[in-house]
Amino acid sequence: MKPFTAAPLSAAFSLACLCAAAPAAAQTDTATVPLDTVTVQVLGGSVPQLRAPFAVTAVREAEIRQGRAALALTDALSAIPGVQVDNRFNYALGERISIRGFGARAQFGVRGVRVLVDGIPATLPDGQTTLNHVDPSQLGRAEVIRGPASALYGNASGGVIRFTSAPPPDAPFATEHRVLAGGDGLLRGETSAGGRMGALGYRGWVSHLRYGGYREHSRARNTLAGGSVSMARGANEARLTFSLVNYDALNPGSLSDSLLRVDRRRAFARNVQQATGEEGRQGQLGVWWRRALGPGAVEVSAYGLMRSIENPIPTSIIDLDRSVRGARAAWTGGAGRLRWTVGGEMEGQRDQRRNFANTAGTRGSLTLDQRERVTSSSVFAQATATPLARVDVLAVLRYDRFRFGVTDRLISATNPDDTGARTMDQVSPALGVSVAVTPSATVYANLATAFETPTTTELANRPSGAGGFNPELNPQRTVSLEVGGKARVAPGVWVEAAAYRARIEDALIPFEVPGAPGRTFFRNAGQANHRGFEAAAVLTPREGWTARAAYTHTDARFGRYVVGADDRAGNRVPGIAPHRWELSLLASPPRGPFAGIDARYVSSTPVADTDADARFASPAYALVDVRGGWEGARAAGLEFAPFLGVTNLLDRDYNTSVVINAFGGRYYEPGPGRSLYAGLRMQLGTRRP
Q1: Residue 500: which residues within 8 A CB-CB, separation 6 or more?
Q2: Is there a contact between 43 and 56 (Cβ–Cβ < 8 Å)?
Q3: In contact, 154 and 398? CB cutoff 8 Å
Q4: For residue 83, which of 130, 143, 131, 156 has the smallest C-alpha distance?
């Protein structure tokens, strides 16, 4: 690993703090919005960001899309304190997203973080989140709650991310087209069309990606489509959304330190021999309706999805067919300084899982055949009050009940019937209080809880090889205390800081076993403690100009954790970098040249929960990406925006992610070196507001 000192990035962060900064996530309907009117939806309703008694961050469209490749959610979630996004450049596994250390256990997809896309859950009833259907280039806004929020959103809420698609163009009909090419065989095309006609708004899009891969055995293709139709008439609003995805990607696997030194681009030999990867298809449909009733409103939403995947891993070929449906209803009302929301949710998930022995990438004998079911129901109540002019109180109470059932369909004289069921439930309260010490500065504190069940995949992966669900794997439960402050110190200048401590009982920890390398199993640690400090500064001196700087410190350690005769209390929780510095700068006037730079420093990251493996921690690294282009060029009735960028400008060797407790020391997933991309965006019709 090439040497690096944090001094330059630290200096940049200090400079941004001196400038301070303002949340660039203003509402999209005006060019500039005073900071004290910036609202967020992720806390339920429209809550002023300054007065919110939780750590909430919002990111606007230009910061996500402007001049970026927009291939990964790192673009949408950069420079947000407390948020760690590991882009593995592996479309078979997806990105790992963690908030304050929650979610670091995920080997594929996202765990421990609740994700919603246009108000529809991307997180399934069992807590799994797959984001293959989310196209970063089509996003218009991202909002993040940092810290436990099960009281607000239920299962898997160590944090919440709410993505909102770009709105329809402000014209009867307009189109946008974008092409992108880059290193490692990158080629992507996308097109969208939409508009507004009176009370009707509509937008649809489609994109196709081909990627040769930075490493051997990592090519990918991905076709996505989606859209929405919305209507607002009188007291009623309604919206329909849909998305489709078809993807096929290879998985090169992780490497040991010795293999990294030989060739960082290589794949693990067994992954190549066993043709590991994932091929999947998913379709999703959601509807939402709202009717204003006096000072309040009634909201009803429902969604459904169908998903099928074939997932060869080194030991098995997993064939999974999944169907999910859900519905939510809530009533919001108010009187004087009090507003409330009461409602309920119901969700169901049905999986047909079959595992086959992997024989050089082809299906061998059937080793598992079972039908898995998850049903959940919840009721919740939320109240927001302003008992004094400068005091806001947010209180939430929620009850969730989950029933996991499995029907074993592979029974023989040597393979007993593993049919069974488990029920898990939890009451999740939360209370937050904010005090406006001045009209432009707020201090706050909150006590929040999180309840996180094991997913069906985690329950089904049993080290013994038996079918059914693991009877010894329990949900993890969290109680968190947070204090913080935020301030608008000048027009266009925003600063914030927060400190927290979270106590986690029965923390879910991944591990591998010698008999099944490459397959992840899970166990509970008795107790873990996450303590941390976050600080951020955002500067928006004029329209299109944004600077963000963020620092995150996470000290995550086991309080009680015994494996056999080994007491691991006091060891660091693996997969969580103790220190992160991030800086994002964007200079983007409405027309003419624009430029941006993103810098990130990540400290050494533990890879295993034993002292013996502490010396194998993934080394610290720093990355710098730059981008630029020209906005608003016109010719023949079209508007053009050429752009280009360089990722990993300094060509650093680094590991983009780690595989926790991997067998054989194969902890590391190396990231690509310096890479160039270039693209062109074309618009016909009025530009989006």
Answers
A1: 100, 147, 480, 481, 482, 483, 530, 531, 532
A2: yes
A3: yes
A4: 143
Starting at the edge strand found earlier in the chain, the sheet holding 139-146 runs 56-60, 139-146, 159-165, 114-117, 120-121
8 Å CB contact between 341 and 332: yes
- Whole-number Å distance between alpha carbons of 164 and 404: 31
The CA distance from 482 to 444, in Å, is 8
Residue 16 parent element (H or E): helix 7-19
Q: What is the dihedral of CA 105, 106, 107, 110, to 10 degrees?
A: -170
Eight-state DSSP code of residue 88: -
Which amino acid appears at position 69 of this protein? A
Beta bridge partners of 505: 477, 527
Beta 566-567 vs 562-563: how paired, if at all? antiparallel
26 secondary structure, DSSP code: -
**What are the tens digits of pLDDT across the range 288-347?**
999 999 889 999 999 999 999 999 999 999 999 999 999 999 999 998 899 999 999 999
Helix (H) or strand (E) holding 384: strand 362-388
Say if CB 299 and CB 293 are below 8 A apart: no
CA distance 370 to 138: 37
- Of the candidates 460, 467, 455, 456, the one whose C-alpha atom is nearest the C-alpha of residue 367 is 467
Which residue is listed with tokens 């209390």? Answer: 569
Residues 6+ apart with CB under 8 A from 665: 256, 257, 258, 613, 616
**Placement of tokens 């991307």 in the chain:** 122
Supply φ then ψ for residue 51, to 5 degrees: -95, -5
CA–CA distance, 383 with 47 (Å, rounded to integer): 12
| Whether 675 contacts 182, CB under 8 Å | yes
Tokens (6 digits) for 72: 């990964």
Query: Taking phi first (over 0 means left), then psi (-120 to 50 degrees means alpha), and beta for anything else, what does residue 269 get?
Result: alpha
| Measured distance CA(101)–CA(554) in Å, rounded | 7
Alpha helices of 109-218 — where are they, by DSSP H?
Answer: 150-153
Q: Which two tokens stand for residue 473?
A: 């794997």
- 110 DSSP assignment: B
Alpha helices in 556-641 (DSSP H): none
The three-state secondary structure class of 86 is strand
pTM of the model as a whole: 0.89
Q: How far apart, in whole angstroms, are the C-alpha atoms of residue 645 and residue 490? A: 32
Q: Which of 621, 585, 587 is nearest to 602 (CA)?
A: 621
d(CA 36, CA 168): 26
Distance, CA of 277 to chain centre: 21
Scanning the structure block, which residue is given the tokens 């989140």? 129
**Cβ pair 195, 173 in contact under 8 A:** yes
Q: Tell me if 607 sits within 8 A of 511, measured CB to CB.
A: no
pLDDT tens-digit profile of 384-410?
999 999 999 999 999 999 999 999 999
Is a pLDDT exceeding 90 seen at residue 688? no
* Rounded distance between C-alpha atoms, residue 321 and residue 311, angstroms: 11
Tokens of 355: 């595992």
State the Cα–Cα distance between residues 81 and 322, nearest whole angstrom: 34
Per-residue pLDDT tens digits for 56-99: 998 888 888 888 888 888 888 988 999 999 888 999 988 889 99
Q: Which ranges of 233-382 does DSSP label H, i.e. alpha helix?
A: 257-262, 269-273
Residue 568 CA: distances (Å) to CA of 106, 124, 476, 497, 616? 21, 32, 18, 32, 17
Look up residue 612 and give its DSSP letter. G
